[in-house]
Write a structure and sequence with these properties.
Layout lengths: L2 H39 L10 H26 L2 H31 L1 H17 L9 H9 L34 H27 L3 H12 L2 E3 L5 E3 L13 H5 L30
Antiparallel strand pairs: 1-2
Length: about 280
Amino acid sequence: MRLSARIKCFKYLVYAYVILISICGGAQLLIGAFLLWTHKQYAPIVKNQFWEPFAVLIGLGVISQALCYLGWTSASRKHRCYLGLFCALLVLFIVILFLVSGWAVATKAHLIVPAELAIETTFTEFLARDDTNDQTHIWNRLQRDFRCCGYNGIHDYKKNKQGFPWSCYDPIDTNVFSTGCMHVFVKSIEMNMIRVAVVAVASALIQSLGIFCVIQLTMLLKRPTLMLPNGDNHSVRVKRTRELAPLSPATIGNPTPHSSTKPPIPLKPVVPRVDQPVMKSSH
């Protein structure tokens, strides 16, 4: 395969790879935005904590789109320097994705205690202010949406003179939810952290598939090409240029070991020009 055909082949492979990165980045943006929006609805219950992994996932999606622009432009212009920069940034980006995945898993493992304390504090404030009849209160929305009641269960409302709030009743069969909201909500946050970890690992693995194509295109663009009269490009090797020393009769007669072994081209004899004498006429 000619060099031009190989460059064209890997160029289109890089284009396909950039499109794949763009799809992964769009998925990171959508999933991160959805998880952040879902978490923000009930974030005051945990004192606005544990939102950082979702925001980081959104930021990584934006960065991946910027990398796509760099890769597409570099491949279209066949700019070897920018392609090398794109490959280096892509490797760094993949490493960051793996680190974010580990960070999300570590956050899941250590969020139970601070989440329980924050939920208990907000529930105590909910009972102290007697906001059980407020339909817009976040605890009523949490109990209605997660189908739970109280901090640990329905016994948390036994001291309440007004009984169970309306959000603890099932609207279909009017039974009281028996599950405590602390366990349900903490489990929901843990599942969201696992989703962040899975998305980060999957994106890192998918985006590492085409690095070989970028490296190969960069190496092909390094080789110089020679344009032939028929329009084909062929690779040529660059030879080291030697310094040309002025020739002398001694050098021509005794060539050095590094000089060419071909005999010197004999010079054609030059015949001196003789002017005809001019005859002057006497008068």
